[in-house]
């Protein structure tokens, strides 16, 4: 089978299309013919050599978390799915024995890791991590859900976003940002978000963004958001200087969830403002398989449609990463390994 492997950790040029033996399922596993796999900034960090998870010794490396497709074969002991089922993978890998695996939520597992391997024509996965897709739910749309939408939903739950709340999303045009806007809308909350691009903001406004701020300047953003009034929650995937901006605009007792570091892995914060304002900062990573199941149900019910910017055949995987690196896209970029056969 063909795979889009990272053969150098030098950015999009480091992607090579190569052949690998098609996998066989072991006990408890399934092999899925991959119809779609969304890419995430997590994959781009790896490809740019900016992830502690993968180094030169691990090459070639096949990334790709967000697998959807059709079950091709199952191993011994698998009853949850059977060949022919259309599925989406929850990429959480958990130990099953620690306190958080026993008591939940599973994404706090002490040995938490993620599945990689979806940028290929077939993927060997844990069968009990597969969620069946209802008829009519497109595999490309479903591929958007496991990382970006699950992370955004989990963060909105952590900040307890509810009807009428105002949620601030710095960097609102990417995978997590657009998901936050659409899901805030589903919850009855309002959103305010930022981008460097007026054209991209217009697209996100058409998806439900209530207040758009075309700026990357923390002082300007702070002033414009403050004019709207104190926000109830912040969904921060940028880190860096945006963390203090988020705290500045947050109401007393408000909550900010952080899941990323695109604008910087360290943030200086005003400590007295934090404690005098009774504000809460919450770290959040991915979500639960239950979150993914809920999202599949919401899409099937027509509550929202995942925003797909572009699909790419497997051999153009490098171009998909270049589009992400160049900040060209709105929503998700999806590689379609099988449809290209
Ligand atoms: N912890 C977790 O479980 C988890 C899960 C998912 C994602 N994440 C993290 O969340 C972040 C977003 O992921 P994603 O897949 O949604 O990425 P993405 O689609 O590439 O996000 C693009 C967004 O980031 C903004 N952006 C890009 N570079 C920027 C910079 N240097 N300064 C300010 N804004 C910048 C873009 O703004 P413009 O509109 O101006 O281009 C756009 O709004 C990443 O850090 C990722 O690692 C974490
Ligand atoms: Zn565990």
Automatic annotation (TrEMBL):
Residues 1-28 are annotated as: Disordered. One of its GO terms (biological process) is small molecule metabolic process. Residues 11-335 form the Enoyl reductase (ER) domain. Pfam families: ADH_N, ADH_zinc_N. GO terms for molecular function: adenyl nucleotide binding; anion binding; oxidoreductase activity, acting on the CH-OH group of donors, NAD or NADP as acceptor. InterPro entries: ADH-like_C, ADH-like_N, ER, GroES-like_sf, NAD(P)-bd_dom_sf, Zinc-ADH_QOR/CCCR. Keywords: NADP. SMART domains: PKS_ER. This is Zinc-binding dehydrogenase.
């Amino acid at each position: 089978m063909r795979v889009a492997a990272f053969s150098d950790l030098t950015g999009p040029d480091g992607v090579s299309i190569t052949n690998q033996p098609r996998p066989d399922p072991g006990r408890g596993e399934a092999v899925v013919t991959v119809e779609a796999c969304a890419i995430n900034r997590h994959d781009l960090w790896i490809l740019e050599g900016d992830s502690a998870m993968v180094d030169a010794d691990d090459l070639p490396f096949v990334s790709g978390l967000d697998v959807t497709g059709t079950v091709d074969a199952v191993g011994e002991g698998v009853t949850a799915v059977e060949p022919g089922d259309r599925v989406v993978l929850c990429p959480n890998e958990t130990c099953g024995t620690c306190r958080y695996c026993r008591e939940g939520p599973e994404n706090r597992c002490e040995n938490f890791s993620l599945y990689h391997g979806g940028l290929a024509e077939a993927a060997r996965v844990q069968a009990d991590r597969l969620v069946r897709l209802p008829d009519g739910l497109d595999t490309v749309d479903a591929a958007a859900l496991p990382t970006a939408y699950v992370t955004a939903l989990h963060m909105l739950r952590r900040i307890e976003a509810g009807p009428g709340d105002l949620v601030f999303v710095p960097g609102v045009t990417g995978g997590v940002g657009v998901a936050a806007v659409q899901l805030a809308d589903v919850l009855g909350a309002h959103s305010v978000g930022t981008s460097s691009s007026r054209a991209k903001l217009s697209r996100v406004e058409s998806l439900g963004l209530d207040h758009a701020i075309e700026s990357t300047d923390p002082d300007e953003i702070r002033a414009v958001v403050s004019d709207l009034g104190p926000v109830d929650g912040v969904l921060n995937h940028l880190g860096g200087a945006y963390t203090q901006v988020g705290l500045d605009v947050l109401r007393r007792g408000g909550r900010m969830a952080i899941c990323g570091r695109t604008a910087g892995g360290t943030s200086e914060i005003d400590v007295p403002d934090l404690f005098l304002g009774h504000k809460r900062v919450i770290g959040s990573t991915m979500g639960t398989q239950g979150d993914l199941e809920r999202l599949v149900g919401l899409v099937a019910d027509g509550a929202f449609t995942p925003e797909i910017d572009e699909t790419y055949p497997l051999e153009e995987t490098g171009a998909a990463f270049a589009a992400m690196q160049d900040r060209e896209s709105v929503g998700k970029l999806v590689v379609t390994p099988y449809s290209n056969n």
